[in-house]
Amino acid sequence: MIIDEGWRMMIEQGVLAGFPVRYLERTGSTNQVAIDMTKNGAPTDTVVAAESQAGGRGRLGRSWHSPAGSNLYFSMILRPALPPEDLPKITLAAGLALCLAVEKVTDLSLMLKWPNDLLLDGRKLAGILAETVNIKGEPTAVVLGVGLNVNAGAAAFPADLRERATSLLIVTGHEYRRSELLAAIVSELKRQLRRFERSGFNGILAEWRKRDATLGRELTWLTRNGGIVRGVSLGPDDSGQLLIKDADGKIHEVLSGDISLGPVHE
Ligand code: BTN
What we know:
Blueprint: H1 5-13, E1 15-16, E2 19-27, H2 30-39, E3 47-53, E4 72-78, H3 89-106, E5 111-113, E6 117-120, E7 123-135, E8 138-148, H4 159-162, H5 168-172, H6 178-199, H7 202-210, E9 218-222, E10 228-236, E11 242-245, E12 251-254, E13 258-261
Parallel strand pairs: 2-3
Antiparallel strand pairs: 1-2, 3-4, 4-8, 5-6, 6-7, 7-8, 9-10, 9-13, 10-11, 11-12
Helix pairs in contact: 3-6, 3-7
Bound molecules: biotin.
């Protein structure tokens, strides 16, 4: 097992790359801890990191498999200077930041699947869950949660995930220092957010589009109310919403729900 002195120092000192870190050996969900801390006035940029999660959560009410000792599970408290309508775009900005940071540390090439998946060799390496924190009815903060599969071997994944998920170890055959990855990711997240606040979303979106794993490919969209839309992905529009063109030429804006590559398995 790789020695990660930076991880030990982060736990001891409560700081990584200049960001305050609340480290938990085991928790339900780092997003939930960070949401509670936000409501209690925790400082912006606080990072909540856990060794394992008993109730790690993903998008659409799914769970996030979070075994101990090998991966990254963390949430960051952000209070971006952006209007509420821009908050959903933060997931895309975060996806780009995650790609750039992991690529810098590993030399790998990563792709993105709208809205929040990082893909490596076509399998899911990481996911992002951004949750808005409302205080007195106003969206005042965003808790950005990231799960990144780092040093987990194939045996660490339950059978139903093995086909669809991967880790840095599985693909490269070697282990990575989580402290190095986490420091690179939180620094890049802040860089992309500052860019968003200062220069708008267009530059970020242009870079996101270059990594779009599903552009021009056949997709199935399972809508929230149980509908099925099949079509070809046109990628995200200028507001970050995914567009799908069906066989009749009708363009659908994906509002929520799930997309999968290829035709649906019925
Ligand atoms: C997804 O792909 O559906 C999003 C997964 C997000 C998982 C991370 S792990 C750390 C943070 N805490 C949570 O409960 N979820 C996020």
